Amino acid sequence: MNKPLLFKGYSNGWPALHHWSWEYFADLKETMIDLYDHHGDFVCKNLLSEFVRQIDSTKLYASGWRFYLEHPEMKSHFSEPEFSRHDCLKKIPATCFLELLWIFIGGRGTGTSLHQDVLGSHAWLSIIDGKKLMALHPPEDFSTCMEEKIIESECVLESGFGKGHWQFFELNPGDLIFIPSLWWHAARNECKTIALTRNFVSEDIKQKATEHLYGNKLNHLVSYLE
Question: Is 146 helix (H, G, I), strand (E, B) or coil?
Fold first, then answer.
């Protein structure tokens, strides 16, 4: 798959859509999370329960919470899409590399600025609660025009329409989107939102991921992908 795909209602049958309420997260009273600003820069740590209670009055974003480290039982609340089950990264021992599985939680207006995903991986993202807007652009070298492209992505999110090579998606609870390797994407939460996402490396992009491992000085992990 080399184009974004939106699967409407894909995860409607997941227990997560019923279990992972705002009250559920507020009850995880001992759980600490990292919070980030709109640039993606780390700001502070806070209790998840406190963050959830303040969700309507903060612009900080809980992006990239590896929930399974403290709450492994939560992995039973959803099922992997078929296209990500043969993830080459799962060959790497957990002692060497943490799986790229995260929950994102944020209030209205929070989100992620324009970026490509780690290791040139594919990704899927599903909305548990709330609404997320996404702007996606095919792989291209933005090194000389990044500021311009960030503005373009924000315009797409604001207008709710794709333009040129840009594609626009609106995700609601139960929706799941596939984001292909190296596609640029930006996201904005239209209201307080909970999302689950995984990055993965299928056979078709294994060589590309290997090059990224070398580029990120993770040479010791390359043998696991061979």
Answer: helix
